[in-house]
Amino acid sequence: MTGPADPAIDGLPCMLMRGGTSKGAYFLAEDLPPDRESVADLMLRVMGSPDARQIDGLGGAHPLTSKVAIVSRSQEPGVDVDYRFLQVGVDTSVVADAQTCGNLLAGVGPFAVERGLVDCGEERTSVVIRLVNTGDTATATFPTRGGRVVYDGEQSIDGVPGTAAPVEIEMGGDPAPLLPTGHAVDVIEDHRATLVDCGMPVVMLDAAEFGLTGDEEPAELEANTELSARIEAIRLHAGPLMGLGDVAAETVPKMILVSPPRHGGAVAVRAFIPHRVHSSIGVLMAASVAAGVRIPSAVGSSFAEVSADRRVPLEHPSGVFEALVEVEERPGVGFVASYSANLRTARKIFDGLVFPRPRR
Questions:
Q1: Per its UniProt record, what PANTHER family does this chain match (predicted)?
Q2: 338 located within any domain
Q3: CA 9 from centre of chain
Q4: What predicted TM-score, i.e. pTM, was given to this entire model?
Q5: In angstroms, rounded to a whole number, what is the distance separating the alpha carbons of residues 89 and 40?
Q6: Is 179 among the domain residues?
Q7: Tens of pLDDT along 137-184?
Q8: Same domain membership, residue 81 and residue 57
Q9: What is 16-84 written as a DSSP string?
């Protein structure tokens, strides 16, 4: 009599994809255990965590390459698929789901087509996606041909070499208030902070208040242990203010240092995610910052060079991320993002079976 399948022996269906400036393992929910604890344990073994090198798994030894997308058909009316994101710790045993990932979101639509969860359009396919972690919805539109996803194209994004086919992502649903505390500025640990959430909880801080120019390289900022401790102290205070509770073991909120632009953008950013510094900036982090600097009196709004249209180009260590955001103030609600969208790319890297290590 044959026993239940053992992923370490029989393998687990998996697709490795680059989504935006991140890379992650994509799974169908039906191929995974039904309970969260078993999934978390399995993903640590898939990624090779905890280990700074992740030498015994798929992880790439950095939070940006230690990510998981779990996708299934949605039961929600008007929604095609559900997408649950997991951030797998690199040198820790933490598997967090308090946040979502807008970069891996770029690969969810193509993955859904690859796995037959949605029908493929003749030239373009649009997939309505529910972001399970946050409850938001998004529509991803990308080129298809002959019943297959087209990955080759001329779209480039900073932080990724070469070009690929564009993936247009528009956030949907009824917009929630951008300011969880209702204030454009809160003072935390003697620093002005703007707490804003446009799909990703972030805390915007003025780099100058920390004696920084804002154009430092990520490695330089990570090596500054005093700076990291100060920012972490602010993050721990900001979590409860944003309704996130105790965030000591969480990866949200993200901490963003903003400074005046130098290369024609709206502002320059350095993003702590939260303990490493992003080599660029996450999609939903960018949306939150872009919305934040459009709010009068918010940190960064005084020096942000924001145009009258939806474009908010954010200068980051690898180039520029152009977020498309409109902000309006609604009576009785406060500031909301009436429109939020971005342009990403995605690519299938491999499709097959992954063999997680048998035990941690």
A1: ACONITATE ISOMERASE-RELATED, ISOMERASE YBHH-RELATED
A2: no
A3: 32
A4: 0.85
A5: 11
A6: no
A7: 999 999 999 999 999 999 999 999 999 999 999 998 778 999 999 999
A8: yes
A9: EEEETTEEEEEEEGGGS-SSHHHHHHHHHHHHT-S-TT-TTSS--SSGGGSEEEEEEE--STT--EEEE
* CB 315 within 8 Å of CB 268: yes
Residue 195 to residues 150, 179, 181, 183, 348: CA-CA distances in angstroms?
A: 38, 6, 7, 8, 35
pLDDT in tens, 316-357: 999 999 999 999 999 999 999 999 999 999 999 999 999 999
Residue 129 maps to a domain: yes
Preceding amide of 50 cis, omega within 30: yes
Helix (H) / strand (E) element for 136: namely strand 136-145
Backbone angles phi, psi at 202, to 5 degrees: -135, 155
Give the Cα separation of 162 and 348 in Å (integer).
15
Q: Write the CATH number for 105.
A: 3.10.310.10
Residue 5 forms part of a structural domain:
no
- Give the DSSP H or E segment for 169: strand 166-172
213, amino acid identity:
T
Domain range for 35? 12-174+345-354
- The mean pLDDT of 92-107, rounded to a whole number, is 96
pLDDT at 4 over 80: no
Paired tokens of 270? 């350095």
Q: Are residues 301 and 210 in the same domain?
A: yes
Asked if 272 and 156 sit in the same domain, the reply is: no
* 47 close to 87: Cβ distance less than 8 angstroms: no
- Asked if residue 17 and residue 134 are part of one domain, the reply reads yes
